[in-house]
Amino acid sequence: MKEIVFYILAAAILVGGLLAVTSRRIFRAAVYLLFSLIGIAGLYFYLNYEFIGAVQIVVYVGGIIVLMLFSIFLTQGSGEDMKKPLLGRVIFSALAAIFGCGLVMSFINGHEFTYSAKPALDPSAENIGFQMLNTAQYGYILPFEVVSMLLLASMIACIVIAIKIKVPAHAILPDNPRYHDDIDLPKELVLEENEVVA
Amino acid sequence: MNNIGLTHILFISCGLFFIGIYGFLTRRNLITMLMSIELILNSVNINFVAFNKFLWADKLDGLFFSLFNITIAAAEAAVAIAIIINLYRHYKSIDVEVTDTMKF
Amino acid sequence: MINLSILLIIPLLSALAVIFAGAKSARMVALLGALAQLGYSSYMMLSYMGERAAGNTNQMLYQTKMSWFAPMNIEYFVGVDGLSIAMIMLTAVVVLTGILISWNVDKMPKEFFFLLLLLSLGAYGFFISLDLFTMFFFLEVAVIPKFLLIGVWGSGRKEYSAMKLALMLMAGSALVLVGLLCLYFNTNVNGAHTFDLLQISKMHIPIEAQRFIFPLMFVGFGIFTAMFPFHTWAPDGHSSAPTAASMFLAGISMKLGGYGCLRVAAYLMPEAAHEYSWIIILLSTIAIIYGAFATLMQTDLKYINAYSSVSHCGFVIFGIGMLTKTAITGAVMQMVSHGLMTALFFGTIGMIYERTHTRQVAQLGGLLKTIPFIITVFVIAGLCSLGLPGLSGFVAEMTVFMGAWQNPDTFSRVATVLACASIVVTAVYILRTTGASVMGPIKNPDFLTFKDAAWNEKFASITLLLCILAIGVAPYWLSDLVSPDTQLIMDNISRVVGK
Amino acid sequence: MLSTNLIVLIPLLPLISFLLIALVGRKNFPNLCGALGTIALLTSFLLAATVAYDYFFVAGKVNGIYQQMVPMKIKWLEFSPNVSIDLGILLDPISVMMLVIVTFISLMVHFYSLGYMKGEERYATYYSFLGLFTFSMLGLVISSNIFQIYMFWELVGVSSFLLIGYYFDKPSAVAAAKKAFIVTRFADLGFLIGILVLAYYSGTLDFQTLITRLTTPTDQLHAITTASFLGASALTWGLLLVFMGGAGKSAMLPLHIWLPDAMEGPTPVSALIHAATMVVAGVFLVARLFPVFSISCPSALQVVTWVGASSSLFAAIIACTQTDIKRVLAYSTMSQIGYMMFALGVSGYGGEHGLGYMASMFHLFTHAMFKALLFLGAGAVIHYVHSNEMKDMGGLRKLMPVTHITFLVACLAIAGIPPFAGFFSKEEILQAAFHANTTIFVIAICTAAITAFYMFRLYFNIFWNKEYHAVSHVHDDHAAHDDHHDHGEGPFTMKLPLMILGLLSIVAGFLPFAHLVTSDGKPLETEFHITFSIAPVLLATGGILLAMVFYKKENPRPQAIANGLKGLYTAAYHKFYIDEVYLFFTKKVLFNLVGRPAAWIDKNIVDGTMNLLAFITEQTSYLIKRMQSGRVQSYAAYFFAGVIGFVLVFIYWWK
């Protein structure tokens, strides 16, 4: 029974992932990715790590996928097909991936893991929270704080990068001839002034 | 349960990783490339969790690593998307082939 | 008392002064600098001769030693012997005349003279250094300005030539650097390594190391002296270079290589020099003969002189390869002689070119009638090149031949006979050139309007001519100046080889 | 007596005259340069005559033997403690004799040129070159060191080059000058290597030491005769190579090709350089090393003999067909020098055996007189006619009486008719040859007959034959003499040397030469065999008569003979095609098969390799540059490939 669950999860993860990287509709790709991520969350549940499975669902499914969907809406029509990947590259990448996969799998297969015999620690939210905010040895308070700084920094970065500022063209990129007004350039190369952003 | 060991899970994560690689190498759309990266990150997370579960069940460190990974992946995705949007404003496209000005 | 650092300070100061001088007065400043340098060098030579006559038997005189980079034992260590003095005098004369000949350069004169003086600084530094690293440093100083001089002030395919020359010379100095470092790590002074030339000469470098280092050094310096088959920078470089740069290139720069081959390669690694001498002789004999024959077919005056330089510099390498005292003395004399002669040759070619705007032999003719002074000097330079007694070339070549013949094996003998045969070919191409370009009927009516040499050109030519005659008529002073030091080099060689 | 300072002045005076004229005189007082040069030479000649007198009659003889003296020796360049080039003066009978000949002929030429070269544009330059030549030649003859002789040898070569190329705007003159220099230079290569060989084994460059070491049984002699190369001993090689240098300068077969062309120079120059002095330098050189040749290496002397004999016959035959009078004289010079050479060759060393040596030197002496006279006379004729060609001449005997008479004297002298100078010297040579080798004797006597024939062919063609008609064309090099019929036979300055030389050509034969110049310095008693002389004189007379029959009056006989001997005649007329062989060798073989390939290889293979390196580098950089495409995915692919590569390396290879 458990095996069946596992294989279903595995199939969801792998098939979802495969479809996510091959589908030519970007919206569908996002949805396939969603399935794959949910499968991974399922795998965590299957391993009895409920907390991390929940985080996975909340962050990925609730956050990142939604973010991606928004950005898809912002950047392009979701309906039409994406461009076909270059055939040569597809072959190369596929071969490389299969070869690499085979290589790694053979290593995994050949390796004898020594399973731990010690009593398992309950991965409950309580235990996790206790150890994470612990300042003693093996406590994770410092990484926790660092990650919070990182999140703050990335938040600011997102705002700075994505914000729209109107500046005169020559003030931004004085040296690039592409942005000079007095040079005759093909039309598609000349940007309108209001399109130039920081 | 006994039949499903660490190896099985590692197979999954390995497959997922190379699927991600394949996607990253073939996809031309930046957002889909970002998706591939998410797959790769997730495969890593699976590994952490699986190792923790099977090899060091008395500890939680693998769990923490994947937790932080998820956090960082979120931050990364956010920044990446910001960059993608910015690029889109410049080039009117998010095709990776277009963004090749940093060459030679 | 002589301070050798002054030899470096004068060109350095005059180079700086040229920068701050006006565009018009730059040449005057440069001339004064060169004159001061010549004066000081002559004074140094005289006092050196005085010291030697007074019985000073130190190998190197006027030594100065300062630590430069202590962790690696790199020192600013200078000193001179007869060999370096001959080279320094040559440099001083050629630089002075080079400045005079380019008196009327109108494109960026300040930069031109600055680079010229910088080049001379490199050459002086190279000749007086006794620390291998310092020597290498100055060698590099003497390379870079050439690139600019040819690339900016040159003519014809100047970018190509400048690039070729700079790359090949750089390759040469890269080889030298590798050799230098290998040598350095094979030295041992109380557990530390040293670059000190005098100390290295006294210690024994393992023969396996010598076998590896010697070719590196010799080829590296050989490129500088246009050794076959690494000579191809010379024809292109000379032909594109402005007159003064050609003079410098052939007159001094090629001597850097010869001096290096002798002072560093052969002196410090005598066993390897002995082992490899057959290769050196082979290559240089090829260079001599083949350079001469290649010259026969050239149609451009500068190419003619460039190829003949390849042939003549072959004698330098040939003399070194023969490893007898007389041959090495001859090689040194050939360096000096060729330096003066080729500078004179290039100088007069420059003067002719300035007037006719062509260097093609076929387009010249009958110039002897219109510009007799320049042409007379040109012919004398040619006669010196073909080894006329009374001019310096004869003395040098004969010394090399006499020295070479002292090796009794058939291989050396055959090589010597072949090298001797080149003097016939030399005569053929020199006479063909002079016959076609300066004798015969006047080819172009424009030639009749030419003015003969101006004061600066006369001054330069006469200075060089006097030096050539001084060596040609009274060679013993040069021979006496250098032979004690070639004797030392030979001692070093015979000590290990037992020859 | 024999003050060193005075002897040094003999060569130095011409040098000073050269420097003075070249540096100062040419610009400031061009017209006085001739006089300056002549005065310098006159002084020089007087000094030389004094020295000769002192040497031969006062100071030179010790115990009845003429000694070699070295009054001066300066170390010039030291190669190794024993081997050095010294500049010195070596006085012995031959060098003193040469001093006199050179200064005297040079003086005559200087004097003659005052009139002949008058009005030339480069009059002063001409005199400066004459000074340079005379200096070099004098330096050559007094050399005490084999390398010193080589130096002056080269210097005479270059002054000859300058003088032949005197009319430098005439392409033929330039070509001739080049040819002369290059051919002799080629011969000098042999000389140089010969010097190297001799110097190496004998361990010295000094003539006296060298000769002593190589003629007496010493270690050096043993070493040089035992060392062998290609079957001949090092001594033979050395001497033959030295002789090669001499043969080049003396225009011996097959290195003679430059001499006829050298006639492009002004005629007085031909008289000085290419008849009387420089061309006998080869003979002088062999004479200088004669003890070594004769005592230690007779086989080399055999070569000298045969080269000399064949050259003399060969040149005589060619001379019969030439029409340019100076070329006839040039070939006759070559023929006479051949005489001197084989005379040396058949000679032995010392005493009675040294007859050939003495005869050779004697002939050198007399030949200098009458050959200079012939050239100067020819110069006068050319000056008058403005042409070198026989067909433009004829019947000049009434127009140029002095020239006619002196020329006749010279022709009689060279033909060996008694009592003119040539008779005596030639008799000695023939006697020496007769005693040594019959074949050589036959060749010699044939040559003598042919000589008489072609000289009188020349004489009759110039002075008799048809009546003289002035040719209308005017030579470029004599443009200044448009009014040539006004100057008649030429000024006094031209006539006087002719007369002096004519006189000497008559009386020089009576000099007691055998008492003065011999191989070992001891006087030699020669007897005069009247019976022996009959045959040569008769043959010579026959030659003269034959020439008279053919050429005294215009007649079709010469043409008929020429047609009869067509093959031989054409071949001789074209100098037996030796020039063509040389041209083929130099132009076709050396230039096309060596020079051109060398230049091609240099441009395409050696330089091509360098350029190929540069090209490969450039292309590689283009290739690598393309990898830096700016495409993230490519980078990722490289990265990925790299990771896999490292994984493989670390797992399978780097265990």
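qc> Helices of chain B lie at 6-26, 30-54, 61-91.
qc> done
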